[in-house]
Write a structure and sequence with these properties.
341 residues, mainly alpha, three-stranded antiparallel sheet, 3 strands
Length: 341
């Protein structure tokens, strides 16, 4: 009899909580077209749940961002024969995140390979997220993720985590700019459910996102504090590249823009190494972003073939007119070929 009463009481509590949730949030959410599941309203005291607004879920830029991240993950984990189709369903248990971090960092994590139980999945997530936060720690990244949010398939948290990894590890992808979503924050305070709408900015501009991961170096200092000296460096580099490009009746006046399509970089490498670069190896008149990235990446390969270290800059950064990235590449050439005729 006691057990029956307890069971009846628990069912009534659940029913009361569900009714409480519906009463508290129905009115403010009817105007958004949002539909909350019962579990969205069953919160502990002072707990909160973040729900992605359905209209934001259908936003084309948001969908494009998801596709870019999915394609990147699949490219990175191709050798593992892992194929991600849905970020929420495929990443929540920590398995794919583990493999992705191991691939990016080059270090194995001490976790069980396969975990079916919820406890085991959360333990794996805890280990993976601790490793991620340790990597990002020096940059004081504003973390928007935790074990519970990832395991509960919170798409916004999952995307924030993937963006942090993509930016930190300089993923060779072009992230859509200015992507933001609306989320509904449901909180329980003093037994009452409260809701609010919050805008979450996922991406900004390419330059601002790069600043989030870039280690500061001499060029950062020049740009920030000594623009007069930066001009001296730029003039020296312009003089250096024109010394060689003039042989092909080419001349550079703007470092950031004229090297952005990769053509001058490829031709410059041929001149510095004294060989002709076959025209079928690169796009002489590139039109698309991808063709320009191909050219810059090909120039980087020529640099490595010539015995130089792989440039720290990404081809995408040069194509996106990032001055510091272009200066780093050209300065590396200058230090190695300044005495070449």
């Amino acid at each position: 009899m006691a057990g029956l009463l307890c069971g009846t009481k628990r069912r009534k509590q659940v029913s009361d909580l569900q009714e409480e949730g519906k009463n508290a949030i129905n009115d403010p959410l009817l105007h958004t077209g949002s539909e909350l599941l019962p579990e969205d309203t069953l919160l502990e005291q002072n707990a909160e749940r973040i729900i992605l607004d359905p209209m934001s879920r259908e936003d084309l830029k948001f969908k494009d961002l998801q596709k870019v991240l999915i394609d990147w993950i699949n490219s990175e984990l191709e050798e593992e024969r892992i194929i991600v189709k849905d970020l929420e369903e495929d990443l929540y248990d920590g398995q794919v995140l583990q493999k992705l971090l191991e691939k990016l960092s080059g270090h194995k994590l001490n976790v069980a390979e396969v975990t079916q139980s919820e406890i085991g999945q959360k333990q794996k997530l805890q280990t993976v997220l601790e490793a991620v936060n340790e990597v990002l720690g020096p940059l004081k990244w504003n973390t928007e993720w935790n074990v519970d949010s990832i395991h509960s398939k919170n798409l916004v948290s999952i995307i924030y985590l993937l963006l942090a990894l993509a930016i930190y590890y300089a993923a060779p992808i072009r992230l859509p700019e200015h992507v933001s979503v609306q989320v509904i924050v449901v909180k329980k305070k003093e037994g009452i459910l409260q809701t609010s709408h919050v805008t979450k900015q996922l991406t900004s501009t390419t330059t601002e996102m790069m600043i989030g991961r870039s280690e500061r170096d001499a060029f950062d200092t020049l740009l920030d504090h000594a623009p007069d000296k930066l001009n001296v460096v730029k003039m020296s580099l312009i003089k250096f590249v024109n010394k060689h490009l003039n042989k092909l009746n080419l001349e550079v006046t703007e470092l950031d823009s004229q090297f952005a399509d990769g053509v001058y970089l490829v031709l410059l490498m041929g001149l510095l190494e004294n060989y002709f670069v076959p025209l079928y190896n690169f796009y002489l008149t590139p039109e698309s972003f991808e063709q320009k990235v191909h050219n810059v990446a090909f120039a980087f390969e020529l640099m490595q073939d010539g015995g130089l270290q792989k440039p720290k800059a990404r081809p995408e950064d040069v194509v996106n007119l990032n001055l510091k990235s272009t200066l780093r590449v050209l300065y590396n050439l200058f230090t190695n070929y300044k005495n070449s005729e």
